[in-house]
Design goal:
Elements lengths: L1 H16 L3 H7 L3 H8 L19 H14 L2
Length: 73
């Protein structure tokens, strides 16, 4: 179910970007985001708590938190 949802999300992003799903997955969707999405034990709550970064949406701020967490590993 998660794999199908991820594939559908990447396909929608590819349509928006006027590119193929393969290019979108490989070039636009960070591997850490894909891994977190597929991990059933991953709790994204902490990504959406706290203040937003100036100039970024809540989702963009959450992505930045995820990438920073992954960089610190």
């Amino acid at each position: 179910m998660r794999a199908a949802a991820l594939k559908q999300s990447i396909a929608a992003s590819a349509r928006f970007l006027a590119d193929t799903p393969t290019v979108c997955k490989g070039s636009y969707v960070h591997p850490s985001l894909q891994e977190a999405f597929m991990d059933v034990a991953f709790d994204a709550t902490f990504l959406f708590t706290g203040p937003r970064r100036a100039g970024l949406t809540r989702g963009e701020t959450a992505l930045l938190r995820l990438l920073r967490q992954e960089a610190g590993k």
